[in-house]
Amino acid sequence: MIPYNKRTSILIKGATHNCRKTDIFIDDGKIQAVGEGIRSEFKSSADFEIDAGGDVLLPGLVNTHTHAAMSLLRGYADDMILFEWLSQKIWPLEAHLNGDDVYWGTRLACLEMIKSGTVAFNDMYFFMDRAADAVEEAGMRACLSHGFIDLFTEEKREAEIKATINLHNHIKSRNNPKLTFATGPHALYTVSPEGLTWCAEYATENDAGIHIHLSETQQEVDDCVKNNGITPAAHLDKYGILTERTVAAHCCYLDDSECELLGKRKTAASHNPASNMKLAGGRAIPYSALKNAGAPVCLGTDGCASNNNLDLFEEMKIAALLQKFTTGDPTILPAAEAIDIASRTGAEALRTGGGTIAPGFAADIILVDRNAICQAPFHNPISNIVYACGGNAVRSVICDGAILMHDREIPGEDAILAGAEAAATSLVARREEEIRNQS
Ligand SMILES: C[C@H]1O[C@@H](n2cnc3c(O)ncnc32)[C@H](O)[C@@H]1O
Ligand SMILES: [Zn+2]
């Protein structure tokens, strides 16, 4: 019997790590020992053993920018310009969302993320108490934020403040260390200076994260400079948003001084290349400038309506190729670094305690199938993982010392697919009824 979603002591034998055969022993949610031949020492302490058969051992991946329940909107609106996509299709549909939709959408998203090797994610959306139910049942880690959109009115701001505080209290009351809270000011074009200030101060008072969209399009930069006389990053900094607990998604149009500013504040930039390419943002993240400035760069998918999946394996490849293509430099963002931004830097940004395969780190790990076609031949497993494999090469996922997927099996998969399909159908039907009534 596989002890799914339950912390266990686990001995993994014969995995490949750093091109060597290794064993790993996990107990109490942490990596206790890693090395060749440790099995004799830990065999009797392990409640469960996994024979890895040469599978590649990696830190679990961390998706630093999602709107998980948007999995229900996959394929609902494609091939549009960002603002029209949001204002004509996405926001009118989201106006019909309810808590059950968010629960099923997040369940579907968690299923997809676990299946492709993700153990933790940074999520900004609505009805987040129901997202918390879904994350807890899936056994993942998540940092949850209410998408704070005040549209520059005091009335909406008061409602968003209430929703944010309610979510924070709700997460505290669950007493689950895998669930954390962040404030979620959506973007500088949807949140007033007063709203930004409140989100920054509340997060600082509570040692919480801040999750925001930043510099996604040229339009955002132009409007910000026109309205405020300063660049987007400088504008957010003015209101205290740029901190070492902040994850800023997209960051495509940052200039050199903004990269320096993020570096100075140790603010993490979440790179979302597939979403940026699909919505034709027009520019790739200034990866080298951010890195040279000391700003952590991590990886995210964005929501399923603009990606349209949550597979960080795909995202690693797209990120590496996009940097090479746009800079004309094939040495930029090599494979090992792509894995690093999909795991360690994200884990550090979300403060998960994982992201590194070493004793004392959280037991958030994955095994990638040694016998998958994408691993043949086995000259360089790291290269294969970034440039050849998709998330479907992941065989097993462990989070906080609990098995979430074993040999690609996750309990309850069919029920999740059925529940999400029904929720998506009903959501779109409600919106269509509204359109019929308007015409
Ligand atoms: C939380 C809100 O954010 C919306 N959203 C989803 N993707 C993007 C994006 O790329 N830029 C800006 N806003 C986005 C989502 O639909 C929610 O309304
Ligand atoms: Zn987003």
TrEMBL record:
Which reaction(s) does the protein catalyse, per the Swiss-Prot or TrEMBL entry?
adenosine + H2O + H(+) = inosine + NH4(+); S-adenosyl-L-homocysteine + H2O + H(+) = S-inosyl-L-homocysteine + NH4(+); 5'-deoxyadenosine + H2O + H(+) = 5'-deoxyinosine + NH4(+); S-methyl-5'-thioadenosine + H2O + H(+) = S-methyl-5'-thioinosine + NH4(+)
The record's listing under Pfam families reads: Amidohydro_1
Q: Which UniProt keywords apply?
A: Hydrolase, Metal-binding, Zinc
EC assignment: 3.5.4.41, 3.5.4.31, 3.5.4.4, 3.5.4.28
Q: In which pathway does it act?
A: Amino-acid biosynthesis; S-adenosyl-L-methionine biosynthesis
Keyword match Transmembrane: no
Q: Which residues form the Amidohydrolase-related domain?
A: 56-403
Amino acids binding Zn(2+): H65, H67, H213, D302
Q: Does this entry carry the keyword Nucleotidyltransferase?
A: no
So where does substrate get bound?
E94, H186, E216, D302
Report the cofactors.
Zn(2+)
A biological-process GO annotation: S-adenosylmethionine biosynthetic process
Free-text comment on the cofactor: Binds 1 zinc ion per subunit.
Query: What InterPro entries would the database entry show?
Result: Amidohydro-rel, Deaminase_MtaD/DadD, Metal-dep_hydrolase_composite, Metal_Hydrolase, MTA/SAH_deaminase
Superkingdom in the source lineage: Archaea
From the UniProt record, which GO molecular function terms apply? 5'-deoxyadenosine deaminase activity; 5'-methylthioadenosine deaminase activity; adenosine deaminase activity; metal ion binding; S-adenosylhomocysteine deaminase activity
Subunit field text: Homotetramer.
Further comment = SAH is a product of SAM methyltransferases and is known to be a feedback inhibitor of these enzymes. As a result of this inhibition, organisms have evolved efficient enzymes to metabolize SAH via different pathways. The pathway found in methanogens differs from the canonical pathway, it uses the deamination of S-adenosyl-L-homocysteine to form S-inosyl-L-homocysteine for the regeneration of SAM from S-adenosyl-L-homocysteine. 5'-deoxyadenosine is a radical SAM enzyme reaction product which strongly inhibits radical SAM enzymes.
* Similarity comment text for this entry: Belongs to the metallo-dependent hydrolases superfamily. MTA/SAH deaminase family.
Q: What does this protein do?
A: Catalyzes the deamination of three SAM-derived enzymatic products, namely 5'-deoxyadenosine, S-adenosyl-L-homocysteine, and 5'-methylthioadenosine, to produce the inosine analogs. Can also deaminate adenosine. The preferred substrate for this enzyme is 5'-deoxyadenosine, but all these substrates are efficiently deaminated. Likely functions in a S-adenosyl-L-methionine (SAM) recycling pathway from S-adenosyl-L-homocysteine (SAH) produced from SAM-dependent methylation reactions.
Its name, as the record gives it, is 5'-deoxyadenosine deaminase
Name its species: Methanocalculus taiwanensis
